[in-house]
Amino acid sequence: MIQKFRWKFIGAAIGALFLVLILTLGSLVGVSYVQNQKEVDRVLTTLVKNEGHLSPHNAQPAFGNQNDPINRNFLAGKYNPEAVYQYRYFSVVVGSDQRIKMINDNNVYKLKNSEINSFLKKVLARKDKRGNIKSGENTYAYQVSKDSMGHKLIVFLNETLIYQRFWLILRLAIALGILALLIFSLVLILVSGKAIKPIKDTYHKQQEFITNAGHELKTPLAVISANTEMEEMLGNDSEWNQSNKEQVAKLTKLVNRLISLARAGETGELTLSKVDFSKIVEDGAQDFKSVMKKNDLTYQVSIQKDLKVIAEQHSLAEVVNILLDNARKYCDPHGKVRVELAKSTWSKNVVLRVSNTYRKGKNEDYTHFFDRFYREDESHNSKKDGFGIGLAMARELIEIFHGKISVSHKGEDIMFTVSLKNVK
């Protein structure tokens, strides 16, 4: 159980770090992408205003508002006239007859006229003012406008080079994020083992104390039981003797469950194998048949045959007994107890449902039902036992079997549900 808690803690810590990395690095990558997008828009707009020409004297608008301290110091940066030469672009002027009047391709590398003509045909066919055209490894953003003579001006900007910074930051963010997660996970695994060692030692001592104390308690209980039986044999069969026998049986059952609960925390003591869940539930339900009748309870049992699960036979039988005993104990007078075992319709699991009439459970706090020594009546004056030790033991055993156990209330019934993976 301690190790399970340790791995849950490690998983939660790694998950939290992953979320922080996603938010921080993701924000950095997102800001980089938006800035690149805005940069493409600004450069295209500047090129259009200057009729396809970009020079150190007219390119300042391409670097954004220089009066904005955030933009100047963190985003676009200060305007550097030399930075103009990093952009690769060309422009085409088209007359009213859709023929090329002028091409300015001084700022691109080895772009043939045939390629420019191909670009132009695609842009004219689309009939939109802005867009993108891909050519080989490069993508060109374009904007359509008019020059000072009223001719159609189409400016093309190589945005692949601008977005290279974004792709670089994205690759670095992924690499650094993975590296940070690996280093953090390794350090956390190493440190957590030492951190939980005192807790682990205390837990094991507690388990040993419960087991040893339980065995020590069995001896005086056995003596009291034997003395009570001897009194009966000598003819002293009174209501007090009967009460002693009932309390001894109750204490013996409590001690046995305490020992079982302590052992349940040590998974190495349970050998899991394929067991017949149907047979276990059938036997348990049969054992409680007379008890239910004695308590004047309606008892309904529905068991699907030959359902196998991975568990430990005696421990799984104990879980069934705990649930049936709990249903019997807390069922309303003249109420109904129902046991149902069937294969789940929606999954490959076998589902055991044990329900009983429990009208006052409508407003019950079910989050504590599986806590050890939980009592509905916190004054400890209740005539009934608390829910805790049996249900706590059932939960720990089911978790060892890699299953799930839950409780719910619907209508007038409280229902305990056990789900284990079905095997053939």
From TrEMBL:
<dbReference type="GO" id="GO:0016036">
    <property type="term" value="P:cellular response to phosphate starvation"/>
</dbReference>
<keyword id="KW-0472">Membrane</keyword>
<keyword id="KW-1133">Transmembrane helix</keyword>
<dbReference type="Pfam" id="PF00512">
    <property type="entry name" value="HisKA"/>
</dbReference>
<dbReference type="GO" id="GO:0000155">
    <property type="term" value="F:phosphorelay sensor kinase activity"/>
</dbReference>
<dbReference type="InterPro" id="IPR004358">
    <property type="entry name" value="Sig_transdc_His_kin-like_C"/>
</dbReference>
<dbReference type="GO" id="GO:0004721">
    <property type="term" value="F:phosphoprotein phosphatase activity"/>
</dbReference>
<protein>
    <recommendedName>
        <fullName>histidine kinase</fullName>
        <ecNumber>2.7.13.3</ecNumber>
    </recommendedName>
</protein>
<dbReference type="InterPro" id="IPR036890">
    <property type="entry name" value="HATPase_C_sf"/>
</dbReference>
<keyword id="KW-0808">Transferase</keyword>
<keyword id="KW-0597">Phosphoprotein</keyword>
<dbReference type="InterPro" id="IPR003661">
    <property type="entry name" value="HisK_dim/P_dom"/>
</dbReference>
<feature type="transmembrane region" description="Helical">
    <location>
        <begin position="166"/>
        <end position="191"/>
    </location>
</feature>
<dbReference type="InterPro" id="IPR050351">
    <property type="entry name" value="BphY/WalK/GraS-like"/>
</dbReference>
<dbReference type="InterPro" id="IPR003594">
    <property type="entry name" value="HATPase_dom"/>
</dbReference>
<dbReference type="InterPro" id="IPR005467">
    <property type="entry name" value="His_kinase_dom"/>
</dbReference>
<dbReference type="InterPro" id="IPR036097">
    <property type="entry name" value="HisK_dim/P_sf"/>
</dbReference>
<feature type="domain" description="Histidine kinase">
    <location>
        <begin position="212"/>
        <end position="424"/>
    </location>
</feature>
<keyword id="KW-0812">Transmembrane</keyword>
<dbReference type="GO" id="GO:0005886">
    <property type="term" value="C:plasma membrane"/>
</dbReference>
<keyword id="KW-0418">Kinase</keyword>
<keyword id="KW-0902">Two-component regulatory system</keyword>
<dbReference type="Pfam" id="PF02518">
    <property type="entry name" value="HATPase_c"/>
</dbReference>
